[in-house]
Amino acid sequence: MTDIDVLVVGAGFAGLYQLHRLRDLGLRTRVIDAASDVGGTWYWNRYPGARCDVESMSYSYSFSPELEQDWTWTEKYPAQPEILAYLQHVADRFDLRRDITFDTSVTAASWADDGWRITTDAGERITSRWLIWATGCLSVPKDPQIDGLDDFGGRVLSTARWPHEGVDVTGERVAVVGTGSSGIQVTPVLAADAAELTVFQRTPSYSFPAFNRPLDADEIAERKATYPQWRDAQRASGFGVPVALPTRSALEVDPAERAATYRERWDSGVLTAVTSAYTDIRTNLEANETAAEFVRERIRETVTDPAVAETLSPRSYPLGTRRPCLDTGFYEAFNADHVHLVDARETPIQRATADGLRTRDGVTEVDTIVLATGFDAVTGALLAVDPVGRDGERLSEHWADGARSYLGLAVAGFPNMFTVTGPSSPNVLSNMVVSIEQHVDWITDAIARCEADGVATMEVEAAAEEAWVTQTAAMVDQTLYPRADSWYLGSNIPGKPRVHLAWVGGIAAYRDVCDAVAADDYRGFTRQRADPHSPSLRTPRPVSA
Length: 545
Known about the structure:
α9 (285-302) packs antiparallel against α10 and α14 runs parallel beside α16. This protein has a domain at 2-38 and 96-140 and 376-529: 3-Layer(bba) Sandwich (FAD/NAD(P)-binding domain), CATH 3.50.50. Helix content is 31%, strand content 17%. By secondary structure, the protein is α/β, with parallel strands linked by helices.
């Protein structure tokens, strides 16, 4: 039995920074990750075209000014190899690997009176006073739900688990299933080499051009010189991506002026630019439609076949209520004679055969099938382990009607357990690195306070969790998000309860709430000293929504 102070699960952006911070407290900390090296999602997602949709000099740590100055990004939007190299550099620079166990998965975790009992797939048993899930929001691939894949005679690949040695599809017939972010990124790259490429699309995505390019020396130097101000702007923004704040409704401006504003923001190559152009795009369907139609016009301008353009144009949900994408040549790819689009909603995939994929129109014969079918977002990694909390309650039981948390940081009935970018935090509706740093700092400060005060357990009060669930749901209901079936709501996973998994109020407001909770003696938590005869450090009380 290994006895430690803190176990962190995951060695991506969150796990690496959490380890670094906990070392400052002098706590015996261990990180466990199923991968063979650091990187998290950027270790696994190596498919051709994999790239971040946040600019590189914003999608990076802010905790070390020296790191900011020493590392130089090469592109506006970093590709997977560069992000992975960055995280490997961080691990080396801060000597983090010595406390990380790779190629290992946590298979069970249960709460006892004095801490957590954890078991790994290597058979190791660990006792830890604190348990922190840094498993990422998009780390468990979704089951593709295509019958007969085992019968297929060619290769079946997943964008979420791409072979590290790479794949050559030159001269092959290739099928891509899915047109979310990974499908949109991989399609034009595969189209450049494949003899025939068929894309099966169930629900079209709104995608914006990235206008990616190399960074020049002057702009790198300027950003490095002004990093403190830029980081402040990130934290004060809605999504961790500073853009000009809107002041008017989309419906109160002249159509020509509105189109010019959308065009300017489209040309910026910033993911949130168009959806942030006016105050009511996320709350008013008529206002939203002005932006959505602008995007559809751009698709019609780009795709030469009107029928294909229409199939690629989203109409069943408002802009921004499903994850928008950034692309490099996605729509243009369909102008090539050897690239084909199948509307899988009108013509569903019935099953895989030995030769390819069957629909009602027959079999599309291919040599390679690429599954770009998404993830069991936010909760998938936690429920895969299904930790057992106080009184023997499993997390799956606590979440039977949908994921619940307090601040997205902790769950009632699961003492001394924290979730980095958990459900009902800004998580996927933010620049993840900005949110990760804020969560890790909050968690570390909370643990440090407990250590200083002789606290053995820190546990969310049920009333606080209920109030947070009510508050976040009410905020979502004021927006257009419920009008879409999306992985934001868990709708992509059969049987998953429909609950919006992200805080929609923006990261600046969220940070203020978290800071206020900490300042008010960790309002909403009960903190109990190690001596069972000592009173708790505060009296539980109702928490207002």
